[in-house]
Design brief:
single chain, alpha/beta, TIM Barrel, 11 helices, 12 strands, 16% strand, binds iron/sulfur cluster
Amino acid sequence: MTAGVSYTRCRLCARRCGVDRTRGQTGFCGTGSRLRIAWAGIHRGEEPLICGRGGSGTIFLSGCTLRCFFCQNYQLSHGNLGRDTDVSEFADICLMLERKGAENINIVTGTHFLPSLAEGIRESRERGLTKPVVWNSSGYESSEYLPLLNDFVDIYLPDLKTLDSSLSASMFGVSDYPDAAARAIKEMAASRPLLRRGSFLVSGLIVRHLVLPGLLENTRAVLAWFAENVADRALLSLMFQYTPPAGPVPQGELQGGQGERGEWKRRVSAEEYGRTLAMLDEFGIEEGFVQEPSEDAPPCLPDFSLPDAFPGGLAYPLWFYGKNQAEGAREICSQEICQQETCCQKIDHYQTRHRQARHRRTGHREIYDQADGM
Ligand code: SF4
């Protein structure tokens, strides 16, 4: 296990439960000390600079340190769907993703498995992994472990969900999410310069923010913070894919009686989309990604009980928790990625779900141009 970090007296995320996960105790995330994975494959729905041409080699972990009630990966974050694996099998998966053309290894919600993931990436590198590693997280990181992340992460892809401590307390049961996430994101920006090679990112920080229906003041505060603190060193990804949850919706205690007004049961409206874009101009945020609104489109929710978990070919399965229980990782898809016309058509189709914002400012472009020659 990585020196100085372990599952005993767990403080791996900012929740700091203090439980001994090696002895069967579980904290808020509900997971033990064995790495638990649900799904891995080639994902084409991430930001264009993350997907590149070959797609992002995405690994979905089980469990979560926040468990938003509207989480699209509800089966994993709330239900812990997945299978206990080990570091060697994780390395097998990383190498399989690279062999299948992935532009990077994209670890989704891995904070609560940090020791195993650090070890797994080290073993993967020793066995020949060359692709950059993406840390795709809620942003609820423990400050003491950020140096360890810097040892193996090339691209940070954290959420900044809110800077409102009372909203955070209502949604996640902790009021310190804003402090923890803002501190972590500042450190991520300081440690990873934006570098692009061709059509994909090899280093840097992209901050994601999901716009919530009826909570545009929440978004305004996040955008203001981004502009003031990291806009010169990071990209913003503004997401409009909020989908009303199938399960229970919180009632009036959330900000402004959100539940009582039924806001959580609808998507972000076209009018809210327009007002949010106006905020980008207001705060001078000119580089990054904006998802197209999906007010009338059918929900695009994954179903992780199936190997082909993502609808419409958005992602391509290569490893699934329900297969090969005794055999370890095995490729479950026999198609050759990127050698079929349909795959390439899907790349184009799904990249239109994000559009790159205007590039009037030169700063990032100059950084990119230097990297282009690598
Ligand atoms: S990783 Fe899990 S057990 Fe550890 S502090 Fe966070 S929520 Fe608690």
